UniProtKB/TrEMBL annotation:
It comes from Brevifollis gellanilyticus. Keywords: Cell cycle, Cell division, Cell membrane, Membrane, Transmembrane, Transmembrane helix. The chain crosses the membrane at residues 6-27, 272-293, 313-342, 349-372, 378-401. It is found in: Cell membrane. The keyword Cell membrane applies. It holds the Pfam family FtsX. This is Cell division protein FtsX. Belongs to the ABC-4 integral membrane protein family. LolC/E subfamily. It is a multi-pass membrane protein. Residues 3-235 form the MacB-like periplasmic core domain.
Length: 411
């Protein structure tokens, strides 16, 4: 029974190390895939001039052609972007970020958002906007309805002007400054609805609509680039900017860099906790070896009296510890694969037993429990588990082999 309990202890330790690591890697991989599947892989923007106007470096038309010819670039699209405030009567919400993309290229660039489309289309003709279901819920609108939008810079300027007016002591001057403040909304038709779980508060319009909203004229905010290997965006971006002075690059991971770093830190701390659990399992194997060597004192004395060497006696108990480690590790490996295979079913069963809900919480981008099994980590886990069991069994076996035969045979 003691041996069986020890095997179970090792199995549980291995199971926890593999399952927890796989689920945490799955969450990180799923989050990364969500970001890469919903955001432009690289956004190139022209730096502003020293006086705040104009721009450094070559014009965007030339840079666009350069980017299209770069190796590893799937597509390069000019965009007009910024922040919008949307309103429907007394109901308001923010649309951020907003990307205005040429209608002719919208299908190519927006294709990766198709899985997240809930209603309407992503064609984006001029005068239309694609919002998320959270926007429609906040504004109480439906696809095909009109929404009033205000460009973020205009709203911010109006707020600053109103604040300056309130600081004015002269009533006439203050009223004159307030009278100059005016916001003229632009009416856009909602042509498509995307999932907010993945897109947050993002919105999409045509390039000409974006240029009109942000008063860019014939200019653009930057160039949106899709890469064949988005996970290497950090390496590729400097190469893209090598011959393009005066431009900067924003990666798909920049905005959520803190969250990605937090996930890495959580994995490191969890690995430490799981290693401690593995040590506890190894101590159970040590306890088994100690118990067995205590129970087998007479047998150890008999073997020593018959001429067995200390190494031979040590190997007897070391073999038992190895068998416990191998059986426990194999059982834990099989159990972990079963748990990972049934992870979403287990979640549903636990939710039913506890009276909870089995659907994703609103605002969370995951509707299922993701998992990513790293073969290298599994091999390390199994190897370390068996090694810990062997080391834990060797110490009491070493002491047992050094008992004098007379002392071991004495009652």
């Amino acid at each position: 029974m003691i041996t069986v309990v020890s095997v179970i202890g090792v199995a549980v330790g291995v199971l926890m190390m593999i399952v927890v690591r796989a689920v945490m890697l799955g969450f990180e991989a799923d989050f990364r895939e969500t970001l890469m599947g919903t955001k432009p892989h690289v956004l190139l923007r022209q730096e502003a001039g020293q006086d705040g106007g104009g721009g450094k470096g070559p014009a965007w038309q030339g840079v666009l052609e350069q980017m299209k010819a770069k190796a590893g670039v799937v597509s390069a699209t000019p965009f007009a972007g910024g922040e919008l405030y949307a309103a429907n009567g007394d109901r308001q919400t923010v649309v951020k970020p907003v990307l205005g993309i040429p209608a002719a290229e919208a299908q190519g660039y927006m294709r990766k958002l198709t899985p997240h489309l809930l209603a309407g289309s992503l064609d984006m003709p001029d005068g239309t906007i694609v919002l998320t279901d959270r926007h429609l819920q906040d504004l109480e609108l439906s696809p095909g309805d009109e929404v009033s939008v205000y460009a973020g810079p205009n709203v911010n300027e109006a707020v600053r002007s109103y604040s300056d007016a309130n600081d004015e002591d002269d009533d006439k001057k203050r009223q004159a400054m307030i009278d100059k403040i005016s916001l003229h909304p632009q009416k856009l038709t909602i042509s498509g609805v995307l999932q907010s779980d993945q897109l947050g508060f993002a919105g999409y319009v045509s390039l000409r609509t974006g240029q009109a909203l942000f008063q860019l004229g014939g200019n653009v905010t930057g160039i949106a680039i899709e890469l064949a290997e988005p996970q290497r965006a950090g390496e590729i971006a400097p190469m893209l900017l090598k011959d393009v002075p005066g431009w900067t690059a924003e990666l798909w991971s920049d905005e959520d860099k803190a969250r990605l770093a937090a996930m890495q830190n959580e994995q490191t701390m969890m690995q430490l906790v799981l290693f401690i659990i593995a040590l506890v399992a190894a101590f159970s194997v040590m306890n088994v070896t100690i118990t067995v060597t205590t129970q087998k004192r007479h047998e150890i004395g008999m073997l020593a009296a018959l001429g067995c060497t200390r190494g031979q006696i040590t190997n007897v108990f070391l073999l038992q510890a190895t068998i416990v480690g191998v059986l426990g590790t194999a059982s834990g490996l099989g159990g972990s694969m079963l748990v990972l295979w049934l992870r979403n079913d287990l979640r549903q069963w636990l939710a039913v037993l506890t009276g909870g809900q089995v659907h994703a919480v609103e605002g969370v981008f995951l509707s299922t429990i993701p998992a990513h099994v790293d073969p290298e980590h599994v091999m390390w886990t199994c190897g370390i588990s068996i090694l810990l069991c062997i080391v834990a069994g060797w110490l009491p076996a070493w002491f047992a082999a050094r008992m004098e035969p007379a002392e071991a045979l004495r009652d």
